[in-house]
Design a protein that fits this description.
globular, 79% helix
Amino acid sequence: MLQPGLSFEQAPPLSVPFRFFLTAPLFGLACAALLLWQGPDLFASRWTPAALAATHLLTLGVMASTMIGAMMQMLPVLVGAPMPAPRAVARITHVLLVLGTLALALGFLLLRPLLLRAAVVALGFGFAVFVAAVVTSLARVRAWNTTVGVMGLATVALAAAVALGATLAASLGWGLALPSSAFHELHPAWGLLGWIGVLVIGVGYQVVPMFQMTPAYPGPLTQWLTWSIFALLVLWSAAQVALGEAGATLATGLALVLGAAYVAFALVTLDLQRKRRRRQADVTLDFWRVGMASLLVAALCWAALLLAPDRVPAGFDVFLGVVAVAGVALSVINGMLYKIAPFLSWFHLQTTVAGRASVPHMRKILAEAAQRAQFRAHLAALALLLAAPWWPVLAYPGGLALAASMALLLRNLIAVARAYRATLAQAAAANAA
C-alpha cells in the first residue's frame, strides 16, 4: 500500500484535512435545501440568483473544501516538503472559506451588495493564505518532478480563478465595471478546467494506480498533459480577452483542443481501470467511472455549444453545468474521499498507536455497504438533476436525492473519524492499564 517515493513522515495532523472533509457535505446539504426551496426556478438559467448561489455552494463549499483538505495532506507527502504552520493555515483558510462561501451564496440569493463585498474579502484573504502556504511548500522542494509541476500549475490556476471570481463579485458588490465580458466564461474555466481539473489529474496519477491496482499512467501523458492543458487555458483566455470577436475562431479551436485533452485523460483512465489487477467490487472505482463517463459527455456538450450554439436546445448550458459539477467533479471527489479518508485514518493510527492498540483494516474503518448506499444516492441525484433542465419539476426529487447523498457522505466521514478516535482511546486505556 505504501508506495516508494512518498514522504509520509511529512504528513500534517489528521485534523488538518478532516476539518475540510467534514465541512464539504454540509454545504452539499445547503445546496439541496436551496433546490427544494427554489424548485424549478433554479434551472431556468445559469445566471439566476438561485443558480449562482447553488453553483457556488457546490464549487466552493463542497469541491474547494475537499480539494484544499486533500492538497494540504498530499502535498507534503507527494513532494516531500511540509507546509508552514499547517494547523494555523488550516484554521484560517477553513474559517474564511466557510464564512466567505455563505456570504457569497446569500449575497447572490438576496441580492445584497454588502454580503458580496464581505465574500470578496473573506474568500480573497482565505485563498491568499492557502496559496502562500502552498507556494512556500513548493519552494522548499529539492528535486523537481511531475507531481511538483502539477501542484504548481493547479495553484496558479486557483489563483487565477479566485482573482477572476473576486473581480466578478466586486463588480456586483461595488458596482465596478468589468475589464472584459469574457470574465464570465474565464472564471468557471480556470476554476473547473484549471484548478480542479489539473488537480484531479495529478491526484489521479497517484491514487488510481495505488488504490485501484491499475497499471501506471503512460509516461508521456503524465509529463505533458497538465502542461498542455495549462498552456491551452492561457492561450484561450488571451484570445477571449485580447482579440474579442476577432479571435472567436481561434478561441473555439483552442477550446476544442482543450476538451480533447480531457477526453484523452478520461479514456486512458477508463482503460487502466479495465486492466486493474484487483477484480472485486470497489465503490471508488465506480465513482471514478461515473466521473470519467461524465467527463466524456461534458466534452461533447461543450463541443456542441462551441460549434453549433444556435442548434442546441434551450437549457443545454445548464445541463452542461450539471454534468460538469455534479457528474464529473462530485463523482471523482466522492471516489477520492472514500480512499483518502480511511487511508489517512489507518496511516496515522499505524504511526501513533501500533503495538499499543489493534489498528483496524481500512475496510473495517468504513464498511463497503455504507459507501455503496451513498453511491446509489449520488447516482439517483445525478440522473434527476441532469433531466431537470428539461423537466424542471424534477428539481424536487433531485434535491431530496442530493440531500440523501450528502447526508450519507457526512455519516460515512463521521464514521471514519469515530473509528480513529475509538482506536486512540483504546491505546490510551492500554497505556493507563
